[in-house]
Amino acid sequence: MAFLMAIIGMLGYAAIDSWIFSQLQPIIDNSLGKQNFETLRIAAFFVVPIFIARGLFNFMGTYTLAWIGSKIVMKMRQQLFEKYMYLPVSFHDDNASGGLISKVIYDTEQVSGAGSKALLTLIREGAFVIGLLAVMFYYSWQLSLVFILIGPVVAVIVSVVSKRFRQVSKTIQQTMGNLTSSVEQVIKGHKVVLMFGGQKQEKANFNERNNHNRQQNMKLVVARVLSVSSIQILASIALAVVLYISSLPSMVEDLTPGIFTTVVVCMTMLLKPLKQLTTVNSEFQKGMAACASIFEVLDQDIEVDSGKKQISRLDGKIEFDNVTFSYPGTPTEALSHISFKVEVGQTFALVGRSGSGKSTISSLLTRFYNIQQGQIRLDDIPIEDIKLTDLRKQFALVSQHVTLFNDTIFNNIAYATANVDPSRVLEAAKIAHVQEFVDQLPDGYDTMVGENGLKLSGGQRQRIAIARAILLDAPILILDEATSALDTESERLIQDALDKLQQDRTSIVVAHRLSTIENADQIMVIEQGKIIEQGDHNTLLQQQGAYSQLHSMQFSEGNKH
Ligand code: ADP
Q1: Which domains are assigned to the chain?
Q2: CA separation for the pair 561, 556 (Å, rounded)
Q3: Among 107, 112, 254, 411, which one is most buried in terms of CB atoms within 10 A?
Q4: Euclidean distance between CA atoms 407 and 464, whole angstroms
Q5: Ligand 1 in reach of 483 Cβ (< 6 A)
Q6: Is residue 328 in contact with ligand 1, taking CB distance under 6 Å?
Q7: Which tens digits make up the pLDDT trace of 127-184?
Q8: Model pTM?
């Protein structure tokens, strides 16, 4: 509907413009030529209303088009945003976040900007060109024919230029993505850059990317200018030919001043819309390139949720049955033939060098990735059979990378628990020892934590994450321990909070320091995706194997401090 309005608006505008030029001949020939001023007087009365109508049509066309464009941008942004949340983890592994952000911010704008501009010129200027041509042919087809002859040449130029445009536009989008990535990395990794004095290198890197982006934009400009100029030169040749033909004796007889003026004026008037029509393609190509980049994401398959089983709360028994898994696109197995069983309420610790596959095990439990072989069962149900949202509700994740949202402490704890009773939030905060440091903040629980909780210490962030997990009250806890030692006081509080959290829950602990898992019911040592030892602390120590080696290593390190 809006689209129809836009088209009517644009067509009306073009029709009025063409009509105005068709009135040149009668005015010149009838009134000026014959000294009859009646026509002029009528024209005088008509001019203002006509321009008012023209203005209305213009408003109708431009406004509705902009309205449609803005709707499209909004819709695409929303769709991309939603898509990002539903895409599997592997997609995000493969795509730099900067590029993804740039798609939402920049590419969507390109689609609508380019699209509506292209449409506006195509319909409005296209109709204007047709109108002008009609006027010209009506008055003198011989002269007009000349203009038509250059048409095919124009078409060839346009097609060559448009190919170039598509290429360059695509590169521009990529460079925009690269730019966003660079900015994002430096902002996120600001401290690392400062510490390692990486400013110089980052500056150089960014300069290169920045310049590359600029160069691509320049290429676009060059292509545009060249095509516009060459088409205008062609048009001027046509004009010259027209002038020449008009001067021929046989033509001069038929030509009245009005006809001649009308044709020549129409031709000159044609140049501008023609020029715009040739840039239409560039705009259109820009829009198409952006569209392709957006649909590349929108066409991606979201996470497959094969599970039918609805589950409100599991007891928390976990079983890995001969699980083999490699990350999508990698040849090596991150886990091979892993089997273990964790009974309800038990604590199961994973030990191993970094890169051995500990985190992979927890990612598989929550189905961030799908396994290729074997089976993972929760309470004897294969996890593929459980509805994805229900499956993930069974886990509370406390990891070393605590993700906090730029919100208040209260809301960060209550995140993921909708409509929760505030007193329960406070209670969880108390158990997790969040209360202690919140009491010292002037705004208390209403304190904003800053992006990713940057205004809090690592230990404080972790305690918030623990409070969040306590509130969530999931049957299974996945604990990815902090690698770096915290100060003793903070550590004691966190350990105490964790102990409370682990009560009555099955927990999987990805351990980096062995001191915290001595009481675990089971400890599994893995190396390059394979189990090499399994048992409890004392058994493993007695075996004098990898675990006892790691243990004595950490013990002596601990003594050094
Ligand atoms: P850990 O937690 O023990 O440090 P991980 O489970 O993170 O080890 O990694 C196990 C192996 O899988 C490593 O060799 C790592 O390089 C690889 N890996 C981890 N994440 C990915 C990923 N998203 N894509 C491809 N390979 C990965």
Answers
A1: 2-298 (1.20.1560.10), 344-366+392-560 (3.40.50.300)
A2: 9
A3: 107
A4: 12
A5: no
A6: no
A7: 998 998 888 888 888 777 877 777 677 777 777 877 787 788 888 888 888 888 888 8
A8: 0.74
